[in-house]
Amino acid sequence: MARIQGDRALEGDGEDNLGFGPTADMLAEALAIGTSSEGLVVGVTGRWGSGKSSLINLTQAALRRRANDERPHVIEFKPWLVGERDALLQAMFSELVAGIDQIELEAGDATGVTIRKAQRAATAVREFAGLLSGAGKVVKAGSVSIPFVSSLIGMVEDFFQSANKDKPRSLAASKKKVCKRLAKLKRALVVVIDDVDRLEPSEIVEVLRLVRSVADFPKITYVLSYDHDIVSHAVEVAAQVRDGSAYIEKIVQITVPVPHPEAFDLRRWFERELKEMNLAGGDEVERRIFEIIDREGGQYLVTPRAVVRTLDSIRFHWAVLEGRVDLTDFIWLHFVKVGNPALYEWITVYLAEMSARASGRTNISEEQRVRARQSLDAALECDGTTFGEVCDRLADHLPGIASYHRDPDGGIYEEVHQVEMDRAIGARRLSSPDHYRLYFAFAQPTNAPRSSDFNDLATAIAASAEQAADLLRKWQGQRLTSGVTRAEVMLDRLAARVLAAPTAPEAEHLLLAYANVMDELAGGSVNDFGGPDVWRRAMRSLPTLLDTLGDAREAGIRRMFAEGQAVSWLTSLFRHETFAHGRHGDRPDSDRLLASDELDLVTEVMLGRYRRMSFDDIKAQLQPLSMLFAWQQGGDEDGPRNLLASEVDTDEGLVGTLQHLCGRVRTATATAEREIATLSRSNIASLVDYESARERITQLAETAQDPVFREKARILLESFRDGDRF
Fold first, then answer.
1. Which sign does the torsion angle of CA 621, 625, 630, 632 carry?
2. Closest CA to 678 of 702, 662, 658
3. What contacts 259, CB < 8 A, 6 or more positions away?
4. Pairing of the two strands 40-45 and 254-257
């Protein structure tokens, strides 16, 4: 697994990425030579994550490198391991005694006088500690929740009891004795209390009171590290004082602010660490990453901790996601995650809603748009910026974001062009509805294709058209939570070229599967234009599949249109190309799927199939009226009219024929949507005698003897009237 640094300070022998070394050396020098005969309290200050602990560790390392006669003894006191006041006192003084004992031990071959001075100082501190904590009363281990501390307190209890065997002195006299004994020590002590700002407010006040009670002990310098604003506020809350800063100043005589790293240095540190990860990517990817480091890094890498946390987040997730997501989107998102959690949360919700919308079955209401924009503005306010200032950066990574938008509302949930979505899916971008969830949850969206789906498809198209058709039928029966079927999702991904490029035989197998099964798949899946939605999705994959056929293209097209059983779907393609080539109506050339000579071939084949069909055959199709139009628009205007002429001779034949010639119009109100069957002059005049048909239906609706037949005629008459309106 990649090396995760975690929220750990730099050790004394670690790599100094912040350039704190010279500062630590000078601070160590000052501590070594500046120990006051009356004691001293030094505050190392800086905001959370600024590197206080790293500076403290480097300073301790610098102190330990000094010669013995110039080196004070360093004691690290960790108050967060001890909660209650008495236990805090005991732990503090036991550390002091241990430090003095260590001085005695390190004296080695020192004179007996030197050793006796250290022993007397330790004894004096024990006596003073016992008095200060309540004449040797200690906190029982049961009241401490940390097992290690519980055992420690048990040992300290024996220590304090031994300190009070003799007649207890007064507190003032005992403290005077301590000061006298400490002043005679050859070496000084430096007591380091790091991360004071991580304690609870009441604990912060107790630590400050403790330091104040012993701040004037000679030969001892206390070094406290903390965020001044946090500690000041904690003092005001816990000690109920008006001015927390003034309270601190009475205890801390000297402050040393942590050097604030240059933003450029933090970004270059991040860049060096990122390069050491050896992340895959070409020149273009590297360029985009450097751009993100300069833009988002400049925004969010404001402390050393931000650098470490962002790098650790990248290391942890990339170990699993490499090759599954886009690297630049991934790095950008982790900058946001660490730097602006509110914006990160907004992005998770926005992408989930955009993914649902991409399925084609969900719409975003105006109320949703307004609320989402308000939430986004609030999140951006945390960065001191506005949507208009950063929308271009958001649009680089998120779908449906306007790249230029200065209005106080809107600019989100905009329409995403299908080509743009296909490109995002193919590149595994954050904007991909198939991949966005991987960036957040190590999981693909519920409705995204599975890797097994692509494997199954590859196996099927390699085998035969029949196996490919069977797989499409199976998938069409699997409806996902988004409302679409698995077949529809997979057809979209074929259009996005997510599947490895098929061979020519594989492409032909899939095209023949389409030609045989598309009418079966249509079901109730209807798009906004009234046609089966699955057809539209399949059609988008045709250019790639047809191009893959190469020299076998013409033969493949002939087989599709001549042998395919999905005549309604083939008819929809035929009509599309007839319009696209300008042979009927007016369509731009860019809409073409077929070359002109290929359309000639398809026209010949399809007209031949239509001429061989009876009207009963045509009525059995999904869209009989569309098929009759295709027949006429393909160049045989008389064929459909002649076929229908004999059908409408009788009243029963007229009613039955007109029922299949109705067009469909969708209307919507504030509460509902309905479909209306229409018989308009523009639709049926080329197929039957419009005036005669309408007159006959009007009469039948009034005079037909059979009530059921009369009702059918009445409904058709209403369709004629709706045809006048729509």
1. positive
2. 662
3. 18, 19, 20, 23, 55
4. parallel
CB 346 within 8 A of CB 379: yes
How far apart, in whole angstroms, are the C-alpha atoms of residue 547 and residue 555?
13
Q: Which tens digit of pLDDT belongs to each residue from 53-90? A: 888 989 998 988 887 777 888 888 887 766 555 566 56
The secondary structure element, H or E, covering residue 225 is strand 220-226
DSSP 590: G
User: Which positions ≥6 away from 682 have C-beta within 8 Å?
Assistant: none
In terms of DSSP bridges, do strands 73-76 and 254-257 run parallel, antiparallel, or are they unpaired?
Answer: unpaired
Phi, psi of 226 (to 5 degrees): -170, 160
CA dihedral 710, 713, 715, 719 (to 10 degrees): -160
Tell me which H or E stretch contains 256: strand 254-257
The answer to whether 91 and 156 are in contact (CB under 8 A) is yes
**Domain edges within the chain:** 21-72+188-259, 84-186, 263-441, 646-726
Count of positions (residues) in the chain: 726
Region at 413 (left for phi over 0; alpha for psi -120 to 50; beta for the rest): left
What is the distance between the alpha carbons of residues 194 and 644, in angstroms, rounded to a whole number?
94
Least confident of 111-120, 332-341, 352-361, 426-435: 111-120
DSSP letters along 408-451, please?
Answer: SS--SS----HHHHHHHHHTT-TT-TTTTTHHHHSS--TTSPPH
Residue 579 tokens read as 């319009």
Q: What is the dihedral of CA 679, 680, 685, 688, to 10 degrees?
A: 10
DSSP state of 168: P
* Phi, psi of 676, deg, nearest 5: -115, 130
pLDDT digits (tens, 9 = 90+) for 457-467: 999 999 999 99
Torsion of CA 400, 401, 405, 406, to 10 degrees: 120
Phi first, then psi, for residue 287 (nearest 5°) are -60, -45
**CATH code reported for the domain at 21-72+188-259:** 3.40.50
Question: Which residue type occupies 27?
Answer: L
Going by pLDDT thresholds of 50, 70 and 90, the confidence category of residue 107 is low
In the predicted model, is pLDDT for residue 143 greater than 80? no
The mean of the pLDDT values for the chain is: 83
Q: What is the pLDDT of residues 578-614, one digit of tens each?
A: 999 988 876 665 678 999 999 999 999 999 999 999 9
600: Cβ contacts below 8 Å, ≥ 6 apart: none
Per-residue pLDDT reduced to its tens digit, 212-270 = 877 778 888 999 999 999 999 999 999 999 999 999 999 999 999 988 877 788 888 89
Closest CA to 332 of 303, 305, 296, 382: 296
What amino acid is encoded at 394 in this protein? L
Torsion (CA) 413, 418, 424, 425 in degrees, nearest 10: 120
Specify which residues 341 forms β-bridges with: none
Neighbours of 221 (CB within 10 A): 24
Residue 181 has pLDDT above 80, yes or no: no
Percentage of the chain with pLDDT > 90?
45
Place of tokens 């000041």: 232
Sheet holding 220-226, edge to edge: 73-76, 189-193, 220-226, 40-45, 254-257
502: left (phi over 0), alpha (psi -120 to 50) or beta: beta
